Amino acid sequence: MIKIESLTLQRGPLRLLDNANLTIHPGQKVGLLGTNGAGKSSLFALLRGQLTPDAGSCSLPDDWRLSHMRQEIEDLERNAVDYVLDGDQRLRDIQKRLAEAEARQDAERLGTVYAELESHDGFTADSRARTLLAGLGFTSEQTEARVGDFSGGWRMRLNLAQALMCPSDLLLLDEPTNHLDLDAILWLEDWLRSYSGTLLLISHDRDFLDAVIESIVHVDQKQLVLYRGSYSQFERTRAERLAQQQAAFEKQQAQREHMQRYIARFRAQATKARQAQSRLKALERMEVLSQAHIDSPFSFSFREADKQSSPLLDLRKGQLGYGEQAILEQVKLQLAPGARIGVLGPNGAGKSTLIKTLAGSLPLQAGELKTGEHLAIGYFAQHQLDSLDPEASPLLHLARLAPQEREQTLRNFIGGFDFHGDRAEEPVRHFSGGEKARLALALIAWQKPNLLLLDEPTNHLDMEMRHALTLALQDFDGAMLLVSHDRALIRDTTDELWLVADGRLQVYEDDLDTYTRWLARFRQQQAQSQADGTAEDPEQPKVDAKAQRRLAAEQRQRLAPMKKAIDKLEQSMSRLNSELEEIESALGDTSLYQTENKDRLKELLARQTSRKQELETLEAQWLDASEEMESLQASAEF
Fold first, then answer.
1. b vs e for 25-41, b when ≥16 Cβ sit within 10 Å of the residue's Cβ?
2. Quick one: fold of 1-64+169-242?
3. Statement: 313-522 belongs to CATH 3.40.50.300
4. Among 298, 326, 328, 397, which is most buried by a count of CB atoms within 10 Å?
5. Which span out of 32-41, 394-403, 553-562 was modeled with the highest average pLDDT?
6. Which of 165-174, 294-303, 319-328 has the lowest mean pLDDT?
7. Interval 22-35: pLDDT, tens
């Protein structure tokens, strides 16, 4: 068992745990929760032997084999399946000794090592590694690709597969679903449920936790508090405890009264009925659950749009895709104010393609797309996190959108996203993925959108921020199209489901639970089709490796001009960033704001505005070119 007694853990001046105690028994599946910085990852490092207690003790059996999900990749030249097999270090050791015995032609040694290989189940290792990769969304072609050919999100999937490949008695997983779609999450749930060892899991996906774990350890006020049962049970139990606090009760009552007033006012109006129903559904859950989040640092809303159009978007006979490759055809949709739609579909079916096209970042291949006169889109996608100005603070990002607004108003707004005091003025380059995601959402919320297009908005967000986002979306007056692997978010904020599959978009009449069963059947059919397609056919010629290499070389040659253009854009962006740094450095000179230097100040401000506009144009071109190149690589190689 894992036994923690009187544990004190400190990182620099910050004390994370103080005289904490915890016992985890073999075979338990435990979710580890706590706010950012509470000490969850440090506890993992302690269990892995990377940290030592400042006081007290943390012990686990000496013979336990430990596996964890790495956060980095060093060898980019390995192919995917070999990289996953590297997770089983004992297997690699046996294979090494087997190769040495074969080289020496040592028959006796060979017999011994082969017996060890069999007892370790080494003869099935390759097929088990490929099964893991398939479950996490890799095609059979991708299993042979170089690790370096994959994007960051897919490399994290490789690290997850490697951790699962390693035989273990204790498995430590830190946010394993961050880069997974719903297909892979459902497969991972099944795999973890059948895992026989002890599991410690950090996750902010409530449905995933409910499906896998049987206890919660909450890092709270420097203690490790154990709750028996699922995450939902933890939330109810904690809510009951916190409900005893008068301040919590008053906050909840204020939220309830606000929602009840909205329902009473708009329930009878056809244009608002859907939103009233959505709030009624939220109100039913709120009495039991919201108390578990009363100490959340997040509280925000999307500012109401000045004007609406009906419809906001109207697409007919749409053909959507990349370059000349069509992914969705004959798409027909209309989005009116108040529409609250969750978009479902298997991995690669075209959900993100749909969102990008409606957002205008991907051109429509064919068909007619009409937009309302007052359409104001708030578009969130993961690549937008990279487009934030790394040298600017959250406050400066917001000030650029509202240069005439009072600073205190901006501070109050950004504070709802937990950017307070000095943190509101720190450069974004120091921020985590979760903090960048919060800032991107804050910028969208400020701009008064009447249509939200959200592509996986909860990646990197912790449980409290997800809860705050849920409440904000429930309170949003405009239309919303949501792609998310967070089933709780879809369930609590949408009133209609659309399904993207087999090149088509259609209304999905069933509920989310039925969809998960449909998706499981779909995956089985795909796996069967793939197995049937890869079965050996004597009339089918074998794959010519030399021809494959030649085709790959031709593909690289075709992509070379595009890569050259991207490199040129990056050089221009770098030059503009350097020039902006010089301008901003000059603007930091206090003497510049004296009356006699007025002309120089005007000149610098004009140059700053011009360079920023140029940079925005180049960044947009760079994003489009990079996405097009990535799409072509994916379609050609995988």
1. eeebbbbbbbbeebbbb
2. Rossmann fold (3.40.50)
3. yes
4. 328
5. 394-403
6. 294-303
7. 999 999 999 999 87
